[in-house]
Amino acid sequence: MTAHFALTNSVADNGTQNRLVSGIRWPLNLTDLVTPRQLEILLKLCEGKVNKQIAYELDVSIATVKAHIRNAITRLGAKNRTNAVAIVAANSAIFQNAAG
User: Which of 13, 71, 79, 95 has a beta carbon 3.0–4.6 Å from 83's, enabling a disulfide?
Assistant: First the structure.
């Protein structure tokens, strides 16, 4: 099994430079892919919180949190919950590094 983590650079149609990984251009604009609530929940998952904690903090049911996560996974094209969190964390890190 071989892991390919190297990011290759490509120039987007608008002249900005994006990174191309597995056919996906990085960084992604997450607000175009998921709803604000889904992004909020995914960011809480990035912090290491579990569904029950997220539900308590947002004053929603655990089933609602699970539904948001499931829908976000689909919208992001992620394989599972862990992959969705990795996508969000990677994009957050890219934007933080670009801003700072």
Answer: 79
